[in-house]
Amino acid sequence: MLTLYGETVSSRLLLGTAQYPSPKVLGEAVKASGTQILTVSLRRETAGGGTGGQFWEMIRELGLRVLPNTAGCHSVREAVMTAKMARDLFGTDWIKLEVIGHHDSLQPDVFGLVEAARILSDDGFKVFPYTTEDAVVGEKLLEAGCEVLMPWCAPIGSARGPANPDALKSYRAHFPDTPLVVDAGLGRPSHAVQVLEFGFDAVLLNTAVAKAGDPVAMAKAFAGAVEAGRLAFEAIPLEPRDMAVPSTPVIGMAVFE
Ligand SMILES: CC(=O)[C@@H](O)[C@H](O)COP(=O)(O)O
């Protein structure tokens, strides 16, 4: 079970709703993924290019927890305004906060992020910040009122998977008691297994499912991956060893007559 801002869900997969080939495929992929939390953007193109009433209606009908996001916002002002519109539209104080700092890499502007997180937390929002794996920034986000951190593992949409696994492991070790969701850059189910094995609490992804050859099958594959990764983490995997260790114990000497 995963608890985020006091709400408990059983799925450790948070799914984005953009770029699907059609609303129908989106709906089927969401069901196949088993997700209980959907992130929706107020600014970006939605499934099949449709925006507005029909899309929001469909999201509501799925009956899942909605985590609106500020994707596409490049300033504190824009992000705060978008968050407030999302609160009115969806009736939720949850917000996935993105303040993009770099056009090419879509890297977060961590200074703007902390500032926006503080403004929104003071206004009663429950902020899920999309951030880098920098622990100092993580500390500042906690001080600003965040109770969940969402470090990237690679640039949004890159599908590269954990670009810096050691940094992610250090991040996990630095925040042992904070729910940590790896957000962005995952490309394959094996990437989700990897970060769940590191001890991350969940993953948030969009492109890897929406742009897969078969989004519904890929959603199902990710559902299995997060379960496998979590189970493996709880089972305490072996650390890699430098030397060979015989896996079959040998007692005494074989006797040949
Ligand atoms: C939809 C959303 O919130 C993205 O901004 C998010 O960061 C996911 O990234 P990927 O598309 O790389 O999974």
Descriptive overview:
Keywords: Cytoplasm, Schiff base, Thiamine biosynthesis, Transferase. Its main location: cytoplasm. Residues 4-249 form the Thiazole synthase ThiG domain. The protein is of the alpha/beta class. The chain is 39% helix and 15% strand. The chain has 9 helices and 10 strands. It has helices at 23-33, 53-61, 76-90, 110-122, 135-143, 165-174, 189-197, 207-210, 215-234; strands at 2-4, 7-9, 13-16, 37-41, 65-69, 94-97, 126-131, 150-151, 181-183, 202-205. The strands form 3 sheets. The chain has a 5-stranded parallel β-sheet. Strand 9, helix 7 (189-197) and strand 10 form a beta-alpha-beta unit. Helix 1 runs parallel beside helix 9 (215-234), helix 3 crosses helix 4 (110-122) and helix 4 packs parallel to helix 5. The longest helix is centred in the last third of the chain and has 20 residues, at 215-234. The radius of gyration is 20 Å and the shape is globular. The N and C termini lie far apart (59 Å). The relative contact order is 0.14. Bound molecules: 1-deoxy-D-xylulose-5-phosphate. 1-deoxy-D-xylulose-5-phosphate is lined by residues 16, 18, 39, 69, 71, 96, 130, 156-157, 183-186, 205-208. Residues 16, 18, 39, 69, 71, 96, 130, 156-157, 183-186, 205-208 line the site of 1-deoxy-D-xylulose-5-phosphate.
Shape: globular
* Order of secondary-structure elements: EEEHEHEHEHEHEHEHEHH
Helix content: 25-40%
Number of E strands: 10
The biggest beta sheet reads: 5 strands, parallel
**Mean pLDDT metric:** 93
Number of discrete helical segments? 9
Q: What small ligands are held by the chains?
A: 1-deoxy-D-xylulose-5-phosphate
Low-confidence stretches: none
The radius of gyration is 20 Å
Strand order of the largest sheet: 5-4-3-10-9
Percent strand = 15-25%
Secondary structure category:
alpha/beta
What is the quaternary state of this protein?
A: single chain
Q: Tell me the distance between the termini.
A: 59 Å
EC number: 2.8.1.10
Family: Belongs to the ThiG family.
Domain Thiazole synthase ThiG: 4-249
Catalytic activity: [ThiS sulfur-carrier protein]-C-terminal-Gly-aminoethanethioate + 2-iminoacetate + 1-deoxy-D-xylulose 5-phosphate = [ThiS sulfur-carrier protein]-C-terminal Gly-Gly + 2-[(2R,5Z)-2-carboxy-4-methylthiazol-5(2H)-ylidene]ethyl phosphate + 2 H2O + H(+)
